[in-house]
Hints:
This protein is α/β, with parallel strands linked by helices.
Amino acid sequence: MSRHVTNIAVLGSTGSIGRNALEVIEASEGSLQAIALAAGKNTALLKEQSQAIRPRWIVVADPEAANREDWSDLPSETELLVGAESIPRLVAEPEIDVVLSAIVGRAGLEGTWAALDAGKTVALANKESLVVGGPLVTRLARRKQASILPVDSEHSAVFQALQAGRREEVQRVVLTASGGPFRTHSKEQIAEVTVEEALAHPTWDMGPKITIDSATLMNKALEIIEARWLFDLRPEQIGVVIHPQSIVHSLVEFIDGSILAQLSPPDMKLPIQYALNWPNRKAGVAQRLDWSQAMRLEFEPPDEDRFPALGLGLEVASAGGTAGAVLNGANEEAVAAFLHGRIRFDRIVPICQQVLQFHCFDPEPTLEQLLESDRWAREEVSRWIGA
Ligand SMILES: NC(=O)c1ccc[n+]([C@@H]2O[C@H](COP(=O)([O-])OP(=O)(O)OC[C@H]3O[C@@H](n4cnc5c(N)ncnc54)[C@H](OP(=O)(O)O)[C@@H]3O)[C@@H](O)[C@H]2O)c1
């Protein structure tokens, strides 16, 4: 008897989400299959993954990295494609059912966009796609009858909890935040933190960019914007609560005061597995809560004075238009500057605030104008840092 196999393209297979996704797919006993992999520069790992999985296609976005690698031992059935422009072409292949969009940063937008344009189901880890192009991306999905399934753990939790009631019965959504490594630091201590300290997240093991975003709480700001567009919420319906244990992944409050939450250990395999198997639930490799152990769940309001990124997130979610592209571009550039030791940690958010203030706001941009706003914001940050 034949059984249904879901063919998946994993964009960002060499990253933290990509590697977790390949574990989930491997544990599915053949019901999920990775038939395409895409990466940026890490050709050694991509080759290793290709030898283990034998996909139909692989993409190396960085041509120089592709040229440096010896591909002679690639499986004979695997076709190598080179250059970022191969990704939008690849995701439209008729054999692909689900595209896991897990490239980091604005660079993930083209893959998300092309997959939706081709009517594919997109399992979306790349929150930047919605931060930059929220209304355009969700409109495209509706027009092409393509689904966007959240992989971000908070949005996966909201997506699951929303199923308990009707949309008009939702009062608000509360996103949980671990608070990052500097949750209890004073402003003075935050000013002095090193790259190593900022990269040491207390509960989640993630790529460097999102780890820094978690330390500034910019990650939560980006998630507020993501939630606004993904669930079509008004900005005032989105709240944030600090929850250091990262076990409650978010909550939905209904008009009668009932609150529904989704709980599980901090392990991205569960939201990945949920999105890839949706609308079904399958047993898998994600960690489970151990109820034989005592457990404490704490919640506290965020401190917007020490973590001003949160206010910025709500502001940008309200403004819409080009604001998301500018915030995201400025943040990516400022985070890279911090990681390279060029600015202090506590300059990241103020730089984003300033670039947003200076930008020429357009309420109804095209995709091209959003990409232009992104370029402008990055150039502004480089110019200010260089000056
Ligand atoms: N990690 C998490 O727990 C988590 C949770 C929620 C949401 N997310 C979101 O998921 C996305 C990925 O995060 P991550 O932590 O997995 O990041 P990561 O570990 O840094 O991995 C990033 C991936 O993107 C690839 N990449 C980078 N630039 C590229 C480009 N220009 N073209 C093609 N591929 C490129 C990298 O390839 P190479 O390494 O080969 O260069 C790598 O495969 C982000 O948007 C993040 O916000 C992550």
